């Protein structure tokens, strides 16, 4: 396996080290190449994602990313110039975000019940395309627009991926989240696509919810969800709600996938670079390790993925919540459990 | 006070009756005119909001709305043809949604702490303007767009309103919620406007959060928020999250205001028409009564508003959660408490 590693900023390198420890334990032929991208590089050289680096990244089987960001970088620069650019250049139209409440993990909900959902967020369209503009900036007549672009091609492929995931899960249930009563143009395309693709998956039951109602049900009744499919912006929001109710972004994993397999997927914990705790060895690498499991699964290494997931589940169920997290200890435990 | 009443569908008439009971108890000179709008009228006549009715509504001091909607009406018809049309025609640029966790109310959060926030959602711009379209419908080349329109005029007035509310509250804190790192055009307008208007309110501290992070903090640390200002779509989502953590939309009130006072405000519970429990006398009218308090406050009847709010707070703190709600009993109690 040829893996590109973008450790990034803040706690990124620390959690990635543990992710690689676990990955190396289950994939003997792991070859890694490190790429220095992120806030530090931008601050030093002004470079975000040189074309030559992008080309090299394309030659790998997958990319593991730690975290990108630093308070010293103006907001938006790294997001658009690096993170989103990677998603768009590598056609990461599936942004995969499981949200599972593990035994031993405290939910902020009083009665969470079992939660085990898989959010399939579109990653290359919607309001994220950067389309829009400003007229008469800094005058009382300024107008600023943002255009959400949605194509049959783009919606169909992510909806299809979501149905494929749903049909492989025991509950076989898919919920479309949108705001079809207000965003009627895009909403209609999404609804029709779910209906059409759904006809090929008669075994999957389908539900629809408006994004506002869904955000509420994620809190009052999260157990009702199995697979979710939604657009880029709604997905950004609801996956953070899902992460919050399942114990926080400290545990949330994600995969940015090109479902066609043409481009390598990029796997990353949802949390940021957490500069306040960087370098102290106290960052929890669990989200990175869960992202490694998504990576393995995407590359068809289902057995290895299951081992890593089982290691995390066991470790979380036996952790003493009073004990502070030590990054390397968690990594050591998970590597031993997964590789053993 | 000349009040237009749109009782609407489902439980709408039941909760409005109780709202009027409470309002009548604190406003002796109340004159009401009922307007038959909603699913039933549309199904009978095909009419949503005749121009003559709209003209008459404009002549009132305020509008009280129960709930609109019926499963027999295709989604979007009543929302766009009636609810949103009213907001746009009456220039309801402030969509006011308090979220307070009352004593005696169960939050789905294990440790909610005190929650008392006031969401100021923009109501006449953003992705709600209906701008967008579809190209090559029902072909593999279909493209659907949604355009979010944001104007300096529109953003400034709602941001100003939010600062005015913040400065009148003990904590004097305002949080802007947006997604400035991705929606850079609109995000920049919102950020610059908050900065500029904020200079006139040096006593108000200002925070900014991305909508995804905020949706998480609403769950993990809702007590940090005081006043919130946000765009139409983000406001739709985060106010439902806020409602969920403070006990559900059964208690959530809202006011749609033209802060300039040119057009009458419209006050409505956030919940829907709940056809499943309509006609049984078990709908909780509390959200409607809290909307009546917003109405009173907006019309400058602060003393009466405080009485109604105090009645609700007292009643909620003394309700037996085992006892089912009886619509008229709750209304009688609240009317007696507020009017006494
Ligand atoms: C950093 C930001 C651009 C990104 C997004 O909005 O997609 C993040 O919030 C995420 O969810 O991965
Ligand atoms: C009914 C719908 C159009 C409306 C909205 O999206 O604003 C509702 O969700 C609300 O929040 O009042």
Domain count of chain A: the total is 2
Tell me the CATH superfamily of the largest domain in chain A: Isopropylmalate Dehydrogenase
Enumerate how many helices of chain A there are, as a single number.
Answer: 11
Most extensive chain-chain interface: A-B, 65 and 65 residues
Rg of chain A: 20 Å
Please count the beta strands of chain A (DSSP E, at least 2 residues each). 12
Structural class determined from secondary elements of chain A: alpha/beta
Strand content of chain A: 15-25%
**Any low-confidence stretches of chain A, pLDDT <50, length ≥5?**
none
Widest sheet of chain A: strand order? 2-1-3-12-11-4-5-10-8-9
Which cofactor or ligand species appear? 3-isopropylmalic acid
The CATH architecture of the largest domain in chain A can be given as 3-Layer(aba) Sandwich
Taking the sheet with the most strands of chain A, its summary is: 10 strands, mixed
């Amino acid at each position: 396996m040829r893996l590109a590693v973008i450790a990034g900023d803040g706690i990124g390198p620390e959690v990635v080290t543990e992710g690689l420890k676990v990955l190396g334990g289950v994939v003997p032929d792991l070859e890694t190449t490190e790429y220095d991208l992120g806030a530090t590089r931008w601050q030093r050289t002004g470079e975000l994602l040189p074309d030559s680096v992008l080309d090299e990244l394309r030659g790998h089987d997958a990319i593991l990313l730690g975290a990108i960001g630093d308070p010293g970088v103006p907001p938006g620069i790294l997001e658009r110039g690096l993170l989103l650019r990677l998603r768009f250049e590598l056609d990461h139209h599936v942004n995969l975000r499981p949200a599972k409440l593990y035994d031993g993990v405290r939910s902020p909900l009083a009665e969470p019940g079992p939660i085990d959902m898989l959010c399939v967020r579109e990653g290359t369209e919607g309001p994220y395309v950067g389309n829009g503009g400003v007229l008469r900036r800094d005058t009382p007549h300024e107008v600023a627009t943002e255009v959400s672009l949605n194509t049959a091609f783009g919606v169909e492929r992510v909806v299809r991926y979501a149905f494929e995931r749903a049909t492989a899960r025991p509950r076989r249930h898919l919920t479309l989240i949108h705001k079809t009563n207000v965003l009627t143009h895009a909403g209609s395309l999404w609804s029709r696509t779910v209906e059409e693709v759904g006809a090929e998956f008669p075994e999957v039951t389908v539900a629809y919810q408006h994004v506002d109602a869904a955000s509420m049900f994620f809190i009052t009744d999260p157990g009702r969800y199995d697979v979710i499919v939604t657009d880029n912006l709604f997905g950004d929001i609801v996956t953070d709600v899902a992460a919050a109710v399942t114990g926080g972004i400290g545990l949330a994993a994600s995969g940015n996938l090109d479902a066609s397999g043409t481009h390598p997927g990029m796997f990353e914990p949802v949390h940021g670079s957490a500069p306040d705790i960087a370098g102290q060895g106290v960052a929890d690498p669990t989200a990175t390790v869960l992202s490694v499991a998504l990576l393995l699964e995407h590359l068809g290494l289902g057995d290895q993925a299951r081992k890593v997931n089982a290691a995390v589940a066991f470790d979380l169920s036996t952790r003493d919540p009073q004990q502070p997290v030590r990054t390397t200890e968690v990594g050591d435990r998970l590597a031993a459990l997964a590789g053993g």
